[in-house]
Fold this protein.
Amino acid sequence: MGIVDRSEPMKATASQGRPIVRMRGVRKAFGPRVILEGLDLDVGAGEKVALIGPSGSGKTTILRLLIGLTEPDAGTIEIDGQYLWHSSRGGTLERADEAHARQVRRCVGMVFQQFNLFPHMTALQNVHEPMEQVLRLKRPEAKERARALLARVGLGEHVDKRPSQLSGGQQQRVAIARSLGLQPKLMLFDEVTSALDPELVGEVLGVLRELAHETDMTMLIVTHEIRFAADIADRVLVFDAGRVVEDGSPEIVLKDPSHPRTRQFLRAILER
Amino acid sequence: MAGESTFVYLPYLMGGVVTTLQITALAMLLALPVSFLLALGRMSSFAPARWGAGFVIELFRGTSAVVQLFWAFYVLPFFGVELSPLAAGVLVLGLNEGSYFSEVVRASLKSIVAGQREAAVALHLPRFYTFRRIVLPQALPIMVPPFGNAAVLMLKFTALTSLVTIQELSFRAGLLRSNLGVSSDIYGVVLAIYFALAVGMASLVWLAERAVNRWAGREVIPWRELTSRRASPAPKWAFRR
Amino acid sequence: MRGALWDWAYAWSVMPDLMRGFALTVQLTLISAALALSLGFVWSVVRLAGVPLLSPLAWFAAEFFRGTPFLIQLYVVFYVLPNYGIAFSPDATGVLVLGVYGAARSVELYRAGLESLPQGQWEACLALNLPLSYVWRRAVIPQVAPVVLPMLGNLVIVMFKDSAVLSTITVLELVSRARDAGLASFRFLEPLTLAGLLYWAVSYAAARGVRRLEARGGHR
Ligand SMILES: Nc1ncnc2c1ncn2[C@@H]1O[C@H](COP(=O)(O)OP(=O)(O)O)[C@@H](O)[C@H]1O
Ligand SMILES: [Mg+2]
């Protein structure tokens, strides 16, 4: 992996308020390739955290772990005070089953790089059907709320279109509305603008910016848009080779990084 | 070519065509649910279901259809299972095709890309809803063309049921030849009838595909593309010398 | 009915006959397969080369053989052609028809294989002005062969199982032997089950081989 700082990795655990995410000693490997090792990460309720780092460093893996798409090999993950894959009985941790994890991760939402909208459903159906299924809302109410959400992301006129009839930016906004519909406490955004044509990036970042400023939802945002991150994040984590190498306010991390490698990385993405 | 007698017996032969089409339809009607059951069995997380489905699939795909037909016709009665030839024929053809088609069903269900399943998990959608509303509507249109092909194959396949005395097209031709002294040229006529039936059925399948694609909101195959199957996938210059 | 369902002594007594039939089945399949693969290759080239008249003809002939029952094709060659002075022995009829039928089916496989090659590959070759022989040898065949070879392998397995239909034109292969043994003693269970097992054993082993071929092709 080239020149990697051999000093102790920084512990990204100092954060204000009640933590909504608490990862301790998390390890994840795919076959012989260790992606994450001994990762500790806290995110406080309501924090807007930007997660940046070179491609392949394990950012997506962290988000997938948080929403339970993958299980850690070791370590614990707590979401809003509950263990995701464990239950604690009288002080000792026991492995819990899939059903337990399903219930704990209910309050987490995720938006994917490739949108992953359901192509055979209209924008409205994409949003209101999950609300019926998960929140057990009656159809008329779910539809009404879904319309309001779509209007809020600027798609009021496109509710009856299928994903294939929408631009990439519009699709990604539907995907954001779809996740918001389930009223998550923690939202994970995985490079939500990376698959978009440059002229469509702005409209999606606009929605994120509005969410960041106007809600108290916790947001964990993986992005390569440094200026955007500096603008909306309370805290920036720089991630490299499976560990957190920088953690702090955007001003400090982005303007005056402590590691030469971070400087290099920031320069590389700013020059794009 | 085929003598005058062929035409005298044409109505009799046409009765056989009706039976041929009946067996085709019944066997496909059986093959459809069988293929779904076997595919879901193979994909199940319950090991005995996987083994059971795997056994049935091996049984019908690993051995010859002729053996299966004879087995149903000659051996099942020995176990006290008395099936009419028609029932035995439909059962064997349906299970046989169902075993092959289960592979298509499985591949179609699996082809719903990981992203779709992951989105369903990330949205905390219930498993049955995910199958019914996300996976199935996307997988079904993928299965329609191969199902149509399988139906055309089944049409040819039914000729084998003449071996177990079902009075379909081939059997009646054989009967005319051996018992009524009609010239064996009649098999030429039968061959032409099968080809005409296959062409007709392939056209129907194509129409059905169009309808399903319309319904699923997918792009409708233009007539051009159907005929382009006749064209070479390699450019002209690739064979120039 | 003395003895349980399965009579080992009887099963044992029909084995030699079955094995003789099995040997013939394997033999006929191998000869037909050789015919199918060689004829099929030439047929495919003609079909795909875009020659006026000849290519559409090759296309239609392949569709005709693929669109009609193998059983009836056998009957036509076995019963009809002799009326016009063309007669073959049962075994020769079987090999010929099975081989041509297999060849016709292989035409579709070559087409599908070639179709799996992205058009961009052809365009790149053209843009680079590569010589035609190089294009086929180094660009097309290495990419298409891993797709086509497993399909051809599966075709041979299908032909092996289809060869059972030759029993209808008095070829003494595995199924006729099994049926004749059954008819002679009015016990079909043992011979037909053993015949089924023999088919299964060979096609299972062959299918595993094809799957290995497929896996290797996938990694390339
Ligand atoms: N399911 C998987 N199987 C094998 N390797 C994987 C899998 N998912 C991710 N990886 C590997 O883990 C590493 C980190 O991936 P990822 O978390 O997607 O990085 P990032 O999002 O930072 O680009 C990559 O090298 C990737 O190849
Ligand atoms: Mg990623």
Remarks:
- The pocket of magnesium ion (ligand 2) is lined by residues A 59-60, 190-191 (CB under 6 Å).
- Residues 23-218 of chain C form a domain with the MetI-like fold fold (CATH 1.10.3720.10).
- Residues 74 and 151 of chain C are 24 Å apart (CA to CA).
- Chains C and A do not touch (no CB pair under 8 Å).
